[in-house]
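Q: I have two molecules that I believe assemble together. Could you output structure tokens for the complex as a whole instead of separate predictions?
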Amino acid sequence: MKLSLLSMHRAYVALLVVTVLQGTPPQDDGQWTMPGKNYASTRYSALSQITPANAAKLRPIWNFSTGVLGGHEGQPLVVGNTMYVVTPFPNVLYAFDLTREGYPLKWKYRPDVNPAALGTACCDAINRGAVYADGKIIYNLLDGHTVAVDAQTGRELWKTQIADLGQGETTPMAPFVAGNRVIVGPSGGEFGIYGWVKGLDVATGKILWTAHNMGPDSLMLAGATFGGGANVGASTWTGESWKRGGAPVWGWISYDPQLNLIYFGTGNPSPYNTEQRPGENKWTNSVLARRPANGALVWAYQFTPHDSWDYDANAEMILADFVVGGRMRKVLVHFDKNGFAYTLDRVTGEVLVAEPFANVNWAKGIDRATGLPMLDTTKQTGVSRGEVKGICPSLEGGKSPASPAAYSPHTGLFYTATNNLCMNFQAAEVTRIPGTPYIGASTPYVAGPGGHMGAFIAWDAARGRKVWELREKYPVWSGSVVTAGDVVFFGTLDGWFKAADARTGRELWKFKVGSGVVGAPISFRGADGKQYIAVYAGIGGDWFLLSGDVRSDDPADVRPPADFAPDLARHTSQGGSVWIFGL
Amino acid sequence: MAACSRGDRLPPSVRYADHVAAGGNQPPAGELNNPFAKDSGAVSDGGRIFGTMNCDGCHGGGATGWVGPSLVDGRWRYGGSDGALFQSIFYGRPRGMPAYGGIMSAGAIWKVVTYIRAQPVPAVVPTQRFQPATAEPKPRREQTP
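A: Yes, here they are, computed for all two components at once.
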């Protein structure tokens, strides 16, 4: 049989897609062009020079201060021999030349960002990174704009307003590109927004579709393709409470090109006081599968119906193909704030595995037949229930969605940061005033069983069991990267960047990076052909609110120690920098 | 025309005592007087309004600081006088403080000011010590040859 060049190209692309989804790419191009490394968001690098045998020889190669204090979440990009770094507000974009000694800047882009956004960002003015597509670096500014910048020259190519600060919407999430669509969403679960995702044209930035996460089918773009019931996005709410019901999209997006579906999680229902929003509140705290070209909803699954605890589902959806229960399945793996790790069939949304990866007491388990949690009713919250004590996990989550996990097809394991915190929960009546917080709860934390507040773990998602864990004194809030050398990297809130053996969990190496790590490490091939690891240091996000006095640039704002982690500020202060490590 | 409630008049500009005046000459400014100063009823009303207007969502319960700064540490970005606090709430501030003058009466804002000013300010402790003083090494005595 004779194949044309075009069909050979198509066949190669199809092969590549299959192998990437199965997690065994024939070789790594050495770049990192999108937030989760690939469409499947595995954060797996096939580079293999760094191994458990030589990781102890890792050393810092380069360090650059970003000049910004806010929480440095997300990850750099490496495209060709250029590294791109986006800072938290005021959202500076740096382009570093990796071919020259000292990696000097090629250019620096300074957008005009409205500082009023600082008051509608619930939890520090963070940013989760950029995406590269079609010669452009595309990212969100905190104040509700998406920008595209020429990757070669730094020239702004387009700027589109996507969100409304006046409604409490801000935009720190990392955009995702599927085909010729830029997919974006807002934060604002603590401001009573009406959550959505939008699809923009990569070439022009024009908004081509907007799909809400609740409300009538017409606004949810839930047509004939959706099998989840008619208008459940409105009928599972009381009155029109869905219009201020939250469901922000501030996490990560994945894409299966074969199924032609994007997957993303939605955040908490607003407000936290459950008694102001009776009903299941679909599709808050859910995973939604949509068509990237037009936003059409295909399926949805709600992890935590009628959320009582702020268990956002914005964590990454990692796509992989492996055997579950004796059958090869196309799955989606998700570590939820509610403390359960889910392995779903990503074609249908069927729950295949759902087991706790953290200390959980709000539910006794997940009924696989119905997909519903089996609740402990004593842990339900609401203003009439007074202060409900000892709920695990805390609303920081069994794992933060800000800390994306990694999956190695080499070991077959998933790797994730976790938190070991519990909370009391006192709900309160609250009034929505657009542009101001809409929360309605007080939630003090304590360390969970064992006293350690976090751990980094390896997880078998086919069986739903923990394989190993590295306990940490503080919650672990960093993302992770795992490599073909079977080394996994993560950072800690007290400022250590660490390497562990991906098979055994043995700690191989650590280095103190100057500030707590809430970013996600990457691995890339340098211009010299060597493997490098890059990561941000710069504590922030929730840990600006919770760590005590870690921001020292304002003499008018001196904070007492955090009650449950009084000495965290002994080990870290805010201050963003980029590190590169190598052998 | 309906009679104005107590304190319900629009504010003039106020002076910020912490600003350096060029040439040593203070600019002309009005004076804002809190009609509820030291009014205990206004303190409790103001505390309630602080919750219903969602101020605690940014400044924390008890105004001790969250994503917005503490209002009870005795330190101020934009001036700590009653008049300066009124202006901050009425017009907002550029780094995230919303303007409430469009939805709150001047009287309600004054009650919030009265509540904030009534909160106890801890003794200023600018030093946070992370180990007991006894754990610190004694200075080494220089030996003379």
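A: One point stands out. DSSP finds four helices and no strands in chain B.
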